[in-house]
Amino acid sequence: MSAPDGTGATEAAVPTLRRDLGLFEVAVYGIGLILGAGIYAVLGEAAGVAGEALPLSFVVAAVVASFTGLSYAELASRFPKG
């Protein structure tokens, strides 16, 4: 299939990806793996303990986690980078 300007697929530039990971990328990947695996590992045990109140327990945990996140945000704003 050719492009609207008449060039063929072989003439178009092939995009390339960088093959490197920095500290930020590796940290985000690791945190995502830990959180993702933690949800599956905790869900069965939490269902056995909380029973039908399982959704409520997750809402309470989310509120507590948001307070933790807000505390870290406040701390970070107290010590600016620049």
UniProtKB/TrEMBL annotation:
Residues crossing the lipid bilayer are 21-42, 54-73
GO molecular function terms attached to this record: amino acid transmembrane transporter activity
The protein's UniProt keywords, in alphabetical order, are: Membrane, Plasmid, Transmembrane, Transmembrane helix, Transport
Q: Which domain of life is it from?
A: Archaea
Choose one Gene Ontology CC annotation of this protein and give it. membrane
Q: What is this protein called?
A: Amino acid permease
